[in-house]
Design brief:
It is a single chain. This protein has seven helices and five strands; from the N terminus they run βαβααβαβααβα. By secondary structure, it is of the alpha/beta class. It is globular, with a radius of gyration of 15 Å.
Length: 166
């Protein structure tokens, strides 16, 4: 098995988890979702963590969870806010190739129906548009490769991830 990892970053709704699991099957790799790791450690949903403990606590826990990763041969889906932590992103880069799943604001907005309950990190008073504009250059900064996925099916995006992984 190929020991190198593929790390997926991108906006909420870009398909990191959904497409990542299929890409992992195509690549004969394991699949790991860092949002699930955080939920397991905290024993509550991402939204509960944000509501009950706040954004700063969530960001700290996300960074700690990422820094604890020591895996190989895995497609890793990250939370959309991971790019706010330089330490976490450097660690992920050391673990493998970073692929940015890119979509437009309108595409993201269409895909996120359950925004209020999804566990999306918005800073005080920040709108979805503010978050998108703030994160975009950070995703671009960390990406080894970018895949436009706004107009593709889950299978097409997964196939592009698998192709980019080679």
């Amino acid at each position: 098995m190929n020991k190198s990892n593929i790390v997926l970053i991108g906006m909420p709704g870009s398909g990191k988890s959904t497409c990542g699991v299929i890409a992992a099957k195509m690549l004969l790799k394991n699949f790991y979702d860092t949002d699930l790791l955080i939920q397991n450690i905290e024993e509550m949903s991402l939204q509960q963590i944000l509501d009950e403990k706040g954004e700063e606590y969530f960001a700290k826990k996300e960074e700690e969870a990422i820094l604890s990763l020591d895996i190989q041969g895995t497609v890793i889906a990250t939370g959309g806010s991971v790019i706010y932590s330089e330490k976490a992103m450097k660690h992920l880069k050391s673990l493998g190739k970073i692929i940015y799943l890119s979509l437009t604001f309108e595409q993201m907005e269409r895909r996120i129906a359950n925004f209020e309950t999804r566990g999306v990190l918005l800073k005080n008073g920040e709108t979805l548009r503010d978050m998108f504009n703030e994160r975009l250059p950070l995703y671009e900064k960390w990406a080894d490769e970018t895949i436009k996925c706004g107009d593709t099916t889950v299978e097409e995006t997964a196939a592009r991830i698998a192709e980019a992984a080679k």
